[in-house]
Amino acid sequence: MNNKEHIKSVILALLVLMSVVLTYMVWDFSPDITDVDNTDSKKNDTKPLTKPMTANMDTTIAPFQIINSKDDHPKGTVATVSNVTKLIKPLKNKGAKSVEHVHRDHNLMIPELGQDITILDFTYDLPLSTYLDQVLNSNAKVPNHFNFNRLVIDRNADDRIVLYAISKDRHDYVKVTTTAKFANFKEALATVKSEMKPYTDIITNKDSIDRATHLFAPSKPEKLKTYRMVFNTMSVEKMNAILFDDSTIVRSSKSGVTTYNNNTGVANYNDKDEKYHYKNLSEDEKSSSNMEETIPGTFDFINNHGGFLNEDYRLFSTDNSSGELTYQRFLNGYPTFNNENSNEIQVTWGEKGVFDYRRSLLRTDVVLNSEDEKSLPKLESVRSKLANNSDIDFEKITNIVVGYEMQDNPDHNHMEVQINSELIPRWYVEYDGKWYMYSDGGLE
Question: Is the pTM here over 0.85, yes or no?
């Protein structure tokens, strides 16, 4: 009998012990959610896309072409990184002797301009204070919120550099007389002149009739090679680690589009076109259109996580109403254009940080030089056909440039085909604020 009671006591003790162990295991259970829709986004991989801080402000906030007009005979070249670096160096870290703001109700004229001037043309509106401060490191006090898209470089009687920043509407300019010696700039310009070809000045409307406001483009573009750009795809998880805080990210996937979100942000990634779109939910009150803050802020944001990918990305457009900036790929100094925006980084600044961030996750693996060359029509032929096209208001043309069309490989969605684009030289026209490819007298 005693043995039976002893056995019962042992069994009861074992049952109690098992109950305690099972209860503890239930309380302490943590499921493996690696393969389910919810995943912990602890920032265990916060490495940048590439080495950070590799881009320079003076070659990212840069012109697209350089013109030298001597005795009204313009020559020019594309603004390669090397050329921009050479010409900007003599302007850096200099003071200002005087600043003058001039407004013209009618067409803008600058009668004091010399006969040998250099022009830097930009594709976007840029605050003069930002360019002087962030690019040239100059302490010049210029009018607040004055924007320009053309910088004319001249000299005065004291052999000092004089800058004329001309507004996009061609009715205002700010004249900055600097302490920089013109002799140093002349020496730098001589190293660039060897690359310059004949350019033609074009008048499209009443605001471009003076030699300081003409449009300039290469008269007869030389035969340009075509290229093939081969890409690899960057990790979407790395992008998430850079942009999201270390909280749980809920993932859902539908029709090739995956959504990631937490309390501070949401991102969509389309694995068919490799597009990534992030919104910062803590910055959704109002985007900033203050370009004095937005341009340095977006540049630093992208540069800090290696977002320029060690490639030639440049600021290409600024929207003063929405605050959106577009950085665009350049190739050998020429802008590239792509119908799917695979060559762009679009970013909008909020009050304290990025509000909206869109980009392709394609990174250039290699650029292959083709043996094929393409001849473009002469500028005069392009100008004449556009002027005689009844569907085009010639006065709305504000730029004519040579660029590269990025033609996507139609089979790039197939896993066995390496993602690539063919780059073909074309004429491009800025018309009514938008860019179009020129084709046989029309725009498309």
Answer: yes
